[in-house]
Amino acid sequence: MELLLNRTSPYARIARVVALEKGCADKLVLVWSDPWNEDAKLLQHNPVRRVPVLVTDDGHSITESLLIALYLDQVGTGDTLLPPARYAEILQLTGWAQGLIDAAFTTMITRKHHGKEIDDSVLGQRRRQAIERTLPALNTAYTVSLPSSDSVTLADIVIAVALDYISFRLPEVEWQGKYPALSALRTRMLQRDSFSSTVFS
Asked: Which stretch of DSSP H or E encloses residue 91?
């Protein structure tokens, strides 16, 4: 299998972490791609020109990080990232975390192309509000139901990636001191090779 990705994409990092957690790393060739240029291989496998893309051994191109995660969860080894007893809960938290990444990523991209003043637009304020609402919601969820230290779910991965991405791209958010349950989750995830070996750079 091949994974088309770049080093600063939170979506690509989700796919990498899942691949490592599911024992697929040895079967995976990393193909570093630039979605902002006319990357021929990336365009071949994803006309939308976004990373990540997982190219399966039989030639299918799976796009979107959560779809890739679902595929790897099925073909990989070890415990499922979506245990049936918590299936709906994990999907809920994963969806919130994905929305958090979307808001942070779009904030960064629009600043890059339009300047930081774009944050004051209607859409910019909407993105900021999404971040401000989602962080405490996730913190409350993890305060009520702390994950066990010997297992990991898809929600744990996506939330931790979202937190790291905000620290990387939007350090002014300063979430660490405000949300102790999320800080504890990130600390726990950093102890896993899949997470510590895929830090943003």
From this structure: helix 87-114
Q: Going by C-beta distance under 8 Å and a sequence separation of 6 or more, which residues neighbour residue 127?
A: 103, 104, 106, 107, 119
- pLDDT category, 147, cuts 50, 70, 90? low
User: For a pLDDT cut of 70, what percent of the chain falls above it?
Assistant: 98
What is the C-alpha separation between 102 and 14, in angstroms, rounded? 13
How far apart CA 28 and CA 2 sit, in angstroms, is 5
Contacts for 72 with CB less than 8 Å, ≥ 6 apart? 15, 18, 19, 22, 24, 54
| Whether the predicted pLDDT of 145 surpasses 80 | no
| Of 166, 34, 65, nearest in space to 108 by CA | 166
Tokens at residue 146, please? 């702390």
CB 140 within 8 A of CB 109: no
Q: pLDDT digits over 38-57, tens only? A: 899 999 999 999 999 999 99
Q: What is the dihedral of CA 125, 130, 135, 138, to 10 degrees?
A: 170
176 contacts: CB under 8 Å, gap ≥ 6:
167, 183
pLDDT per residue over 122-144, tens digit each?
Answer: 999 999 999 999 999 999 999 88
